[in-house]
Amino acid sequence: MGSRYGTVRQEIAARSSHRPPHYQVDNAKVFRLLSNAIEKHKFVMTWIKGSAATKDGRGAFKTFKAHFMGTSELENLANKAEGKLDSSVYVGEHPRYNFEMHVTTHQRAHLDLSRAGGRELTGRDKVRRLLKSISAPNMTVPVATVRATENLRVNWDECLNYLRQFVEEKTMNRRQISATGLSVGRGKFKKKRKPTGEPVPKVEDRYYTPSEWRILVKKGLSQKVLELRNGRTDNSRAKRVKNEATRKVKASNSDDEGG
After folding, report:
1. What is the rounded distance in angstroms from the CA atom of residue 170 to the CA atom of residue 139?
2. Which residues contact 73 (CB under 8 A, 6 or more apart)?
3. d(CA 130, CA 136)
4. Fewer CB atoms inside 10 A, N or C side of the chain?
5. Are 55 and 27 in contact (CB under 8 A)?
6. Under a CB-based contact definition with an 8 Å cutoff, are residues 109 and 85 in contact?
7. Model pTM greater than 0.70?
8. pLDDT of 44-54, one tens digit each?
């Protein structure tokens, strides 16, 4: 009764000495656990190197906490979170930034503000910030509905579930349009055009214009043309050799008859 400690365990921990052997064993274990947890982050390891020689786990943890959870660091964390909430804008579904990414950005900022302490947002503030960041034309009516509905206006999860219905509906419509082979253009449907390109010349042993030759090179067909031309040259050379041999045989026969 009348103790300033919440539990007996807390009072025992507060009054325990840091000198007995079992404390030294536990202190070294704390240092080892902390070191193993952050060993892959060299920049972070710098902040506990001062306690490495004595394996002072308590001192390492206090230094670590003072730097990463100190007043200035928490203030910086809170300012960054506030900046994300103010700068993030949702203008519609895009491959690189969609509604779920936008919501995740806000959720992470909420967690950072909670970690920083003293700036945790209420459900009403979270919803208000989210609605303020939505500029997509198709979300105008849902946003107005949330603002006019008390339950949605103060409940973060309920607000997200309601807004997701309209985002998914728009995404589904786009997929259905894509499946029909049509694309939307300025308020009307138009048939998708098939990609057009220059016709690929037929591979044969003939003369090609510069533009035709560029197409063959691009398609990797120029080597086949060169092989056809080399084959033609080889055949011509073999034919000349054969004709020359035939001529010599005829000349030799003529000389024998004349003799």
Report:
1. 10
2. 67
3. 12
4. N
5. yes
6. yes
7. no
8. 788 788 888 88
